[in-house]
User: Which sequence fits this backbone?
């Protein structure tokens, strides 16, 4: 996820006419964010239709992204807009896909309404959700990919949103982002990409959850039954260290996105959601060992 | 407003309105909504906190707790007073001035 503010050029040329936008994706809906993507690059459109497939819904979207390739003569050839607002212009195509994924995450958090969004991956088993919370680089996306490959159902790899009324984690089954450092241990998840769309990709793999394994890979809303705070440490033995619920609550609150909701409401919602949860810190240097230990601890029979 | 170090046995501690509290496994997690600061209390402090409702003085609370736990009254009194001052410094008590830079 890009960490810098989008580059906005106030003197950006007007967008191409809608007639030039040959491809419009299906409608995608994630928590409160409802969108489709229009583009003049059909290969990219088809790629996005597949990539966001788990978010596809019937009906008309309420917002649109526009991705334009202005042709080789333009110095800022590739452009991403949200509605009429310029998000980024770049001479290199991967920037527009990076910013699209970043902007979708941002909008999901901004549109979460009463939901409490936590920076966490999540997967479900036996009707209960496991939250994997931590900063970028802690290994949560890698671990959730490994668990889904093993039979867990996917909820998200970025934003775990807790409903304050039901206390269930709502799914945000975005494409999983697998960074270069994790691709070796998840080699079987390498996406097959149309060569015409491959120019939009950088080193990160974006994996459609449905492509990970056969069967239902996406979980319905689920209660928080387990919480882990993973930390990847090269060469470290895999270890689960029990954590008190109150301590886990504070750590989860540190990972809450600030979507303008009252802090007290976040405290009460996350606190209630943890009432029956078991919590640990997880240190690991090996994905397979971590998945094995997690599955064993959670009583999974796979 | 009273300074935390000025609190004595006659003070009736009461948690400030706007402080949210969740209790998990007997341990309280407090959030001061004025600055979103978080505070984690151990089980003993959590029990004492539940008595901070503005209806009893520190002297009375110490007497009640020392009798309930069979503990030395002077020691319990010193602990409750220290706890009240700490809570006050954090901006969590009504009528007590928070220490700047101490989460309050």
Assistant:
């Amino acid at each position: 996820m890009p960490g810098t503010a989008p580059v906005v050029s106030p003197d950006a040329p007007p967008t191409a006419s809608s007639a030039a936008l040959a491809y419009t994706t299906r409608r995608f809906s994630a928590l409160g964010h409802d969108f489709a993507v229009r583009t003049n690059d059909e290969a990219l459109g088809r790629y996005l239709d597949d990539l966001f497939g788990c978010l596809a819904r019937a009906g008309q979207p309420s917002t649109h992204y526009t991705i334009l390739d202005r042709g080789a003569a333009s110095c800022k050839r590739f452009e991403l807009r949200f509605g009429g607002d310029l998000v980024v212009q770049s001479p290199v195509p991967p920037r527009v896909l990076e910013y699209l994924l970043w902007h979708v995450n941002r909008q999901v958090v901004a549109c979460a309404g009463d939901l409490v969004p936590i920076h966490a991956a999540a997967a479900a088993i036996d009707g209960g959700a496991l939250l994997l919370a931590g900063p970028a680089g802690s290994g949560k996306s890698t671990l959730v990919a490994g668990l889904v490959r093993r039979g867990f159902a996917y909820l998200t790899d970025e934003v775990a949103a807790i409903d304050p009324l039901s206390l269930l984690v709502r799914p945000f089954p975005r494409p999983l982002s697998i960074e270069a450092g994790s691709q070796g241990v998840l080699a079987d998840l390498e996406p097959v990409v149309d060569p015409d769309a491959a120019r939009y990709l950088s080193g990160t793999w974006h994996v459609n959850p449905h492509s990970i394994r056969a069967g239902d890979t996406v979980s319905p809303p689920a209660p928080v039954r387990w919480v882990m705070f993973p930390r990847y440490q090269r060469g470290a033995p895999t270890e689960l260290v029990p954590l008190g619920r109150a301590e886990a609550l504070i750590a989860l609150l540190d990972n809450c996105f600030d979507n303008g909701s009252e802090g007290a409401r976040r405290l009460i919602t996350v606190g209630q959601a943890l009432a029956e949860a078991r919590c640990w810190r997880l240190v690991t240097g090996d994905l397979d060992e971590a998945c094995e230990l997690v599955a064993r601890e959670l009583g999974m029979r796979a | 407003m009273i300074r935390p170090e000025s609190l004595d046995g006659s003070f009736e501690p009461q948690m400030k309105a706007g402080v949210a509290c969740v209790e998990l496994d007997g341990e309280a997690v407090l959030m001061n909504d004025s600055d979103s600061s978080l505070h984690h209390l151990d089980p003993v402090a959590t029990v004492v906190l539940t008595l901070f409702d503005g209806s009893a003085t520190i002297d009375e609370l110490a007497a009640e707790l020392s009798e309930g736990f069979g503990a030395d009254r002077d020691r319990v009194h010193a602990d409750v007073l220290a706890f009240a001052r700490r809570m006050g410094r954090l901006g969590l008590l009504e009528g007590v001035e928070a220490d700047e830079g101490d989460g309050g």
